[in-house]
Structure formats: C-alpha cells, structure tokens
Design a protein that fits this description.
The chain is about 70% helix and about 0% strand. The protein is mainly α. Helix 2 (about 55-70) runs parallel beside helix 5.
Length: about 400
C-alpha cells in the first residue's frame, strides 16, 4: 500500500492507517521543522543578523504573504488532489527550514522564510480542509484536539533536542535547521509509502467561495489572525530583546508550551463538544484581554514567561472557529472556503508586523494594548455564535431581541 498504488474511502480504513491518524502524523511532521525554526528564529535574527524590530517586522510580513495568498490553493486543486498538495507543502516546508542556516544574510533569511512559509501555510490550508471533510461533525472538535496534541508532542521533541543539545554539543544554527527540516522530509517519505490516497468525500467546488451567511466566520477568522500576530511576532521578540532569553531558554519555554498543549488540547476539544463553540471562544477572549494587558506592563522575566505559556494555551480553543464553520457550511464549500479563510486570517498578518514593528520602536506597551482591544472585539463577535449553530442558523443577534420582562 502506497499513495501511488491504492485509493481508499476515509471510512474504509481503521487503526493506524485511518485518515485521523494520517492527519495526526502530518501535524507531527509539520511541527518537527516549524517548531525548531520558530524556536531559533528570533535568536538567529538577533545574534547572527543583528535584526531590530524593523527588520523582524519585515521578515514576519514576508512570512505571512503566502498565508495571505492561500486562496490560490483552490486553483492548485484543479491539477492535484488535496492530499497531494498537503504532501507537496510539507516538502517545501522541510526544504525551506533545512537550508535556512546556509544563507546567513538578511536577504537569505527573507528568501528561506518565504519558501518555508509557502509550505507551512498551504499545508495548514489543506489540513484544515481535509479535517473538516474526513472527521465526523459530532466528534470533530475532540479529534482536532488529538491532532493538536500530536503536533504538540512533535514540538516537545524539537524543543527538547534543542534544549538539551544546544549547550551540551555546542550546536550551530545551521546544523539544527538542517536536522529539523530533514526530519520532516523523512516522515513525509514514510507517509507516501504507508498511506493510500483517501477520497475527499463530497466533491469540492474548484472556485473561490464568499458567502454572506459565512460573514461571522470570516470576521472571527480575521480577528484570530490579528491576535496571532501579537503573540507570534512580538511576545516572542519581547522574551529575547527585553529579557535576554538565550536559545536554550527559549526552547525551555517552548517545551512548557508544548507540554501544556499536548495535555490540554484533547480535553479542550472534548469541552468544546460538550459546551459549544460560543462559550469556549468567550472564555478564550476574556483570558486574552487580561493576558495582553499584563504583557503591556510586565517587568519581570518569570511573569512574562508565565504570560507567554498562558497565552499559548488559549490557541487550542481556536478549534471552535473551525467546528463552528463545519456546522454551518455547505459540505462542498469546505476546501475553497479553507483557502479564503486563510487569506482572511492573514490580511492583518501582512501589515501588522511591519506597522507594529515601528510602533514597537516607540512603545512596546502600545503593541500589547492594541492586542487587548482586539480581544474585546473578538469577544463581541464570539457572543454572536448561536448555542447550536447549523445551516440557516449562523448568527444570534442577541442584542436585537425584545425584552421578555413584563411592562410595569
């Protein structure tokens, strides 16, 4: 059985060759290289390339360009299957990370970041689409939690190897980048050999889809992208620039993040199934408001690290945005909408790193205060999700409902 010799329906295969396990292993393969790249990125930029907030903002904006162009994935699906595109994306990701250390200049870092990012974002687009097609609606959130948990375990492997080996073996950036990218390519080779081609279920529309009734999903996705930039770009940069975290210390912090994700993500997925998307997202955005306010005024390195771990723990709750869409969507819209959603998610990602990079030079606190405002906007949007979302019941305008109290 290989990808090139056998086709299978998602419901026909069980055990370790099931689509759910394939999604888990792909998530792990992605994180082996991306987690290592993310661990090293800020230190590589500061220690090897002398980057400031301006250059890191430019580099991060370049990283987000492929995410902004994720809608083009729907056209690639005219010439290849979604599973094929997911595999090709993992190939680009692995190669992009593996060669990063061999180009230690600003331009070289920008180019390898772009290659890596094309692979990462197109993989994420396909993984989201395939998850929503292959996983049953009733248990999708729980299964997605398990997928995140496996990805977090792969993060632990990457961060753990860096944490233990960086000082002990005097590793270089070049060596670690090469090993991380190579591991992804090895796992990819295994997937091609061990798994068949799985059918995607309902035939997907091979054109861009924008529907008025999906507007709340689009809005939540846009705000999630804006919030993510505050964390991924500036919270990590804060740890290195203000508090002087070294590579192995950043790896230790990421180890904590990965451990929490591995343990909490399956439970979060199960809780979303139990309590619903609305309550889960409201909890997330209240927590983020408090975290971003705290970031703005933190002066203690340990407290900052604690905030970073708490902030990262909230990411798993974003599963609720995906399962909300799964419940309201026409099944044939899933693949094209996944690409559009990633583009919407990255609209803010293209300009926020550069714009906020300049704001950072004047006031780092202002960056995080803006994040707190974003959290409040997201909180209002989350409150519009119905208790039981479904096709035809996508939004609950609770503030328009007439009062039920008797008149005096």
């Amino acid at each position: 059985m290989t990808y090139f010799t056998q086709n299978a329906h998602p419901d026909e295969t069980k055990g370790w060759r099931s689509p759910a396990v394939l999604l888990m292993i792909m998530a792990g393969a992605m994180q082996l290289s991306f987690a290592a790249w993310w661990n090293l990125m800020n230190n590589f930029a500061v220690q090897e390339l002398d980057f400031t907030g301006r250059e890191i903002g430019i580099q991060q904006s370049i990283r987000e360009i492929p995410g902004f162009l994720s809608f083009l994935a729907v056209y690639l699906l005219l010439i290849m299957r979604e599973q094929t595109l997911a595999y090709a994306s993992l190939l680009l990701l692995g190669v992009g990370v593996a060669v990063t250390g061999y180009f230690p200049t600003a331009i070289g870092f920008y180019v390898t970041t772009l290659v890596m990012s094309v692979g990462f974002h197109y993989y994420e687009t396909m993984a989201q689409s395939l998850s929503l097609q292959w996983l049953p609606k009733a248990t999708a959130a729980a299964s997605m939690g398990k997928i995140i948990s496996v990805g977090a375990f792969a993060q632990l492997i990457a961060y753990g190897l860096i944490f233990v080996g960086w000082k002990a073996f005097d590793l270089s950036f070049t060596v670690v980048f090469a090993i991380a990218g190579g591991l992804t390519l090895i796992v990819l080779a295994f997937l091609v050999i061990a798994y068949p081609q799985f059918k995607e279920g309902v035939p997907q529309r091979k054109k861009l889809i924008l529907r008025k009734r999906y507007w709340l999903f689009y809005a939540l996705t846009f705000m999630a992208g804006a919030r993510r930039q505050i964390f991924t770009v500036f919270a990590g940069f804060l740890m290195v620039e203000r508090f002087g975290y070294d590579v192995h210390e950043v790896a230790g912090l990421f180890l904590l993040n990965g451990a929490f994700n591995m343990l909490l993500a399956p439970k979060i997925g199960s809780l979303i199934v139990r309590f619903g998307e609305r309550k889960a997202l409201i909890l997330e955005y209240i927590g983020l408001f408090v975290v971003f306010l705290s970031y703005a005024f933190v002066t203690n390195a340990t407290l900052a690290a604690s905030l970073y771990v708490i902030d990262h723990a909230f990411f798993a709750i974003a599963i609720a945005i995906k399962t909300y869409f799964q419940k309201i969507a026409d099944p044939a819209d899933i693949a094209p909408t996944a690409g559009v959603a990633f583009t919407i998610n990255h609209i803010a990602a293209v300009f926020i790193p550069v714009l906020f990079g300049f704001i950072w030079l004047v006031s780092p606190a202002a960056v995080f205060l803006a994040g707190a405002v974003m959290a409040l906007a997201s909180l209002f949007l989350a409150s519009l999700i119905p208790d039981v979302p479904e096709e035809g019941r996508e939004v609950d305008f609770w503030f328009r409902k007439p009062s039920t109290q008797p008149a005096e």
